[in-house]
Amino acid sequence: MLSDYAPILVFLGICVAFGVGVQALSAAVGPRKPTPEKELPYESGIVPLESARRRFSVSFYVTAMLFIIFDVESIFLFPWATIVRDLKIFGLVEMGIFIATLFIALIYVWAKGALRWEF
Amino acid sequence: MLLATQNLQFPPTRDLIGLLPELILSGAFVILLMLDLVTPPSRRSLLAAVSLVALAAAMGAVVWGWFDADHARTIYAGSFAYDRFGRFVDGIVIASAALTVAISPDYLNRRGLHFGEYYALILAATVGMMLLAGAASLIVIFLGIELLSISLYILSGFAHTETRSQEAALKYLLLGGFASGILLYGMALIYGATGHTQLTLIKQSLAGSSGTDPLFLVGVGLLFVGFAFKVSAAPFHWWTPDVYQGAPTSVTTFMSVATKVAAFASLIRVFTYTFADSTDKWTGIVAFVAIISMVVGNVAALTQTSLKRMLAYSGIAQAGYILIGVAVSPDPLGTVGSLYYLAAYAATNLGAFAVITVLAGRGEDLDSYDGIRGLAYRRPYTAAAMAFFLFSLGGFPPTAGFFAKFLVFSAAIHAHAVYLALWGIGTSVISIFYYLRVGLLMYTRPKEGEETYPWARTSLAGGGVLAASAAGTLVLGILVFLIYTAAVSAQHGVLPVPQQLA
Predict the structure, then answer these.
(1) Cα separations (Å) of B428 from A19, B350, B396, B402, B433?
(2) Which residues of chain B neighbour A90 with C-beta distances below 8 Å?
(3) CA separation for the pair B238, B242 (Å, rounded)
(4) Domain ranges, ordered by start, for chain A
């Protein structure tokens, strides 16, 4: 039973060996002539303006969380849509309850002010 | 052809009825969130009333389900067990939730924490616990644990302006998330070893084997660690004192009782009944954890000077006693003992924490031993109730604690595990010391002109909750056959397929 998983182990081993091997090879034989420009973090060709470790508004976090909730809703909707005819009225009611619950949650966060940007 | 859709079975009405209590509380959760938006802050006690009505309705559904589930069956394709075992535990969980909600409005008002989400979250946690108690599939077990845990993470940090409450919430979240990960890993390995997530099918596929597959055994170990964390058994108990102390006391009241009851129900269903054919492989570990919990909990409680931390360590020790009932698997008396112990623990511990909640004044929680000094001379009835709960926790007759310990220890002796009973009795003797110490403090007369803690006035609801807990503790200590018969019946019907009581 356990030996069925041996290929996974072999695969993992090859992956690790390849990753480490390539890095080691390039460190060993590659030329290295650092200049200040080369040491800069890569920002798509633009010179970085400031440190990346700055504080972000908590609003980003709240918005991202709400986004994920509705993202997940659409993920649920897709497989449901493919078989909605076979599920008949039961499937329709079930999805109605699901969307209604999410809608109530939206009303709740809206009323609580989670969608405001400035505090 | 994507799916054999014509073979799809839709849940028939009887499946929905099996989840009726959970559905009632989920509906109430949504209603509470909406009501909170339109209720003025001064009227928030109304939300508590709505929660109580929903809990009463759910309790009615559970009682009806107890009679309906006479012939146990699984619903939703074997993922949920509709049996008396689940209903028994649901009853304890709902009663705990109702008593917690009843003492909450006064307490939250005094602490300035009265927000509507509190009740919604309590109900959400209750639904999670009920799902956990009835879960007959690894997926539903995880779902139930996450639902109850996430609600409780938020509730622990409900006193959001206090560092201690924030610390409790963060600590609980991080350690709880870690424990969930371990639990999930164990589930994945068990699925890998058996090819199933439904407990009945896992049991079937284990019946042919000797249960020595290393994949399976590692999974069982990880699963046990996850459960041991949730029931706060040593050595997985480190979060318990900090979280119990930091969380608002009404939350601790609920958390310390209901979480433990629900998690133990699932632990028993998975270990004693699903892994029944390989008990010799894992009972040793369970017995070891039981002993460690009894020793660590009771010894650490001796040195505490905070009421909540003392009760937290006492809860760890109690988890050890309840684990004895699991460690003697497959002896059915062990399950009966554990179930009885859970009911007794719920009534008693809820009462003890409710006393601290009801007495807490404005601002800081009542927590230090000094805060309870001389209580008996100002609040004789409350002090008497607390003394009664402490006696029950210590296992004195005629209280619930005495018969709970008696049943668990006699199950150990019946299963030829006398050493477990001896460890239990030995550590109980230690426990009497710290319970009595608090009891004596309450009956110490304050010196002339000495300031006592400004105890809050006990409201009608608070007094009612204390009376109900005390009555429960007394009934479980005197009319033993009532709950004992129910526990035997619950054991008899437990899914998947129980051992019969000899």
Answers:
(1) 58, 20, 10, 11, 9
(2) 10
(3) 8
(4) 2-112
CA pair distance B166, B159, nearest whole angstrom: 7
Contact indicator for B232, B241 with CB cutoff of 8 Å: no
Sequence-ordered list of residues with C-beta below 8 angstroms from that of A99, at least 6 positions apart, any chain: A73
> What is the fold of A2-112?
Methane Monooxygenase Hydroxylase; Chain G, domain 1 (1.20.58)
Burial (CB count <10 Å: 0-12, 13-18, 19+), residue B386: buried
Q: Give me the torsion for CA of B408, B410, B416, B419, rounded to 10°.
A: 70
Place of tokens 């009782």: B257
- Using the Cβ of B38 and the Cβ atoms of chain A, whether some distance falls under 8 Å is answered with no
The residue written with tokens 């029931």 in the block is: B231
Classify residue B138 by burial, with Cβ atoms within 10 Å: 0-12, 13-18, 19+. buried
Of A86, A108, A111, the CB nearest to B8: A86
| Residues of B (3-32) whose Cβ lies below 8 Å from A | 3, 5-6, 8, 10, 30
> Six-digit token pair at B137?
């599939």
Indicate whether this complex's ipTM tops 0.85.
no
What pTM was estimated for this model as a whole? Answer: 0.89
Q: Mind listing the pLDDT tens digit for each residue in A67-119? A: 998 898 899 999 999 988 888 888 898 899 999 999 998 899 888 887 887 76
Tokens read off for B486: 């129910």
Contact (Cβ atoms closer than 8 angstroms) between residue B484 and residue B410: no
